[in-house]
Design a protein that fits this description.
Belongs to the amidase family. This is Aspartyl/glutamyl-tRNA(Asn/Gln) amidotransferase subunit A. This protein has a single domain, classed as Amidase signature (AS) domain (Amidase signature (AS) enzymes, Alpha-Beta Complex). It has 18 helices and 15 strands. An eight-stranded mixed sheet has the order 6-8-7-14-15-11-9-10. Strands 1-3-2 form a three-stranded mixed sheet.
């Protein structure tokens, strides 16, 4: 098979070909690495490539499969991972200057689980420094570019993961999400991103940004790819006290695409307030395609959402600044200017502010719980604005200049504050750029949001379009 064809395929397409030995993991890994080399100069997604180890890993996977030891969907699949997830004896920089030589003595739990599943690791991917930003315009390692338009941001902080999956320089990836850092780049780059329930996936061996808001999750080409990846990484971990010991669903089995009788909640006053016209149109059309398949729509009220942005900001600023406090005292000039300012800001909220934010958070969880007594999922745009130009701190919202950070995390932050699962799925293009529709669900009910996302995906809102660089690198 032509390597061009291979790099464009999803895991769900590649896995059967690997299992029945039509293609070998070595052939696939070489195709991905060559394509990564060919696109890297333009996209700048990789921090480091593990060519030698990847080929060795692919040979081992091939041997196991030839000998009848096929381990499942991700066996022999090449994957690059966000650079705040630790690999034993490898550098994890967090895309920072301060940690540029940091080597972990152990694998992150999610990496250990992926190794057991037979994943082939091709390298580490760029991120916004310390995951504290949404542009991935990194002062130390350069900006990551959006494969759909090289002038635009890919979103962040998992921008390297979003861009690499979209351009085909990795088949799938893991990102982290504290205020939207999986879903923002997934929406901006036209891929699927899942922030599962807080406590569903271990964060052990992942450098924290704000411990009570952080999540690790799949960034993939399709919903089934995300379901298969979640299947591998989900579960209780004694090394991470925030994980919750609840049974893990068989996510792939539960994806039927049947949404008959699904009740979709829509909250107009927050999640459809101040939204780019082109985005709103696509998201409402996406909801309508599910209604056409038998789903119903119900409007819901979530009163505490009006305070969510403040609570998210106070919580993330305070926790992040606590983590970086000593480096801020001893080597402040080694931080990028943008995040240094945020860490300085994070020293300002008082204990009273932080605790009030937690009270709002508790009330917000109760409001969402109440909404989920009436509906199965909530739907809204992932982002209210389109990706802006690299280097610009302002976004365009229906002709008005608005603050980029405030706006881009407006619809994703509530998922982190409540810990509820949220999935971003592509729902079409506006001005040539991909748009994501976000689906939120009940705690630990990832199966329902994945199935809903799959039903939308089956209507082919992207019309099989791929970035030019994926096809013509």
């Amino acid at each position: 098979m032509l390597s061009k064809e291979l790099v464009a395929k999803s895991v769900e397409e590649l896995a059967p070909l690997i299992e029945n030995k039509s293609i070998s993991p070595v052939e696939l890994t070489e195709a991905i690495l060559d394509h990564a080399d060919a696109t890297e100069e333009k996209i700048n997604a990789y921090m480091e490539m593990y060519r030698k180890e990847a080929i060795e890993g692919a040979k081992k996977a091939e041997e196991e499969i030839v000998n009848g030891n096929y381990r499942g969907m991700y066996h022999g699949i090449p994957m690059a991972i966000k650079d705040n997830v630790y690999f034993k004896d490898k550098v994890s920089t967090m895309s920072s200057k301060i940690h540029k030589d940091f080597v972990s003595a152990h694998d992150a739990t999610v990496i250990a689980k992926l190794r057991n599943a037979g994943v082939v690791f091709t390298g580490k991917l760029s991120m916004h420094e310390y995951a504290w930003g949404i542009t991935n315009n990194n002062p130390h390692y350069g900006a990551v570019k959006n494969p759909w338009n090289l002038e635009k941001i890919p979103g962040g902080s998992s921008g390297g993961s979003g861009a690499a999956v979209a351009v085909g320089s990795t088949v799938a990836s893991l990102g982290t999400d504290t205020a939207g850092s999986i879903r923002i780049p997934s929406s901006a780059c036209g891929i699927v991103g899942l922030k599962q329930t807080h406590g569903r996936v271990s964060k052990y061996g992942v450098y924290p940004l704000a411990w009570s808001l952080d999540h690790v999750g799949p960034m993939t080409k399709t919903v089934k790819d995300a379901a298969g990846l979640l299947q591998i990484i989900a579960g209780f971990d004694k090394n991470d006290p925030t994980t919750v010991d609840v049974p893990v669903d068989n996510y792939l089995e539960k994806i039927t695409g049947d949404v008959k009788d699904l009740v979709i909640g829509v909250n107009e006053e927050y999640f459809f307030n101040e939204v780019d016209d082109g985005i709103e149109k696509l998201v409402r059309a996406g909801i309508q395609t599910l209604v056409n398949q038998g789903a119903k729509v119900k409007e819901v009220k979530i009163p505490m959402l009006q305070y969510a942005e403040w609570a998210e900001l106070v919580t993330s600023l305070s926790e992040a600044s606590a983590i970086h406090h000593s480096d801020m005292l001893t080597r402040p000039d080694d931080f990028g200017h943008d995040i240094r300012m945020l860490f300085e800001l994070g020293e300002l909220p008082s204990a009273v502010d932080y605790l009030q934010a937690q009270q709002i958070r508790r009330q917000l969880k109760q409001d969402f719980q109440k909404a989920f007594e009436e509906v199965d999922v909530l739907m809204m745009p992932t982002l209210p604005i389109l990706p802006n130009d690299i280097g610009d701190d302002w976004a365009n919202l229906n002709g008005k200049k608005v603050d980029l950070i405030d706006n881009i995390i407006r619809f994703t932050g509530p998922g982190n504050l409540t810990g509820l699962p949220a999935l971003s799925v592509p729902c079409g293009f506006s001005e040539g750029l991909p748009v994501g529709l976000q689906i939120m669900g009940r705690a630990f009910d990832e199966a329902t949001i994945l199935n809903t996302g799959y039903a939308l995906e089956q209507t082919n809102p992207m019309k099989n379009k791929k970035p030019d660089l994926l096809l013509n690198a």
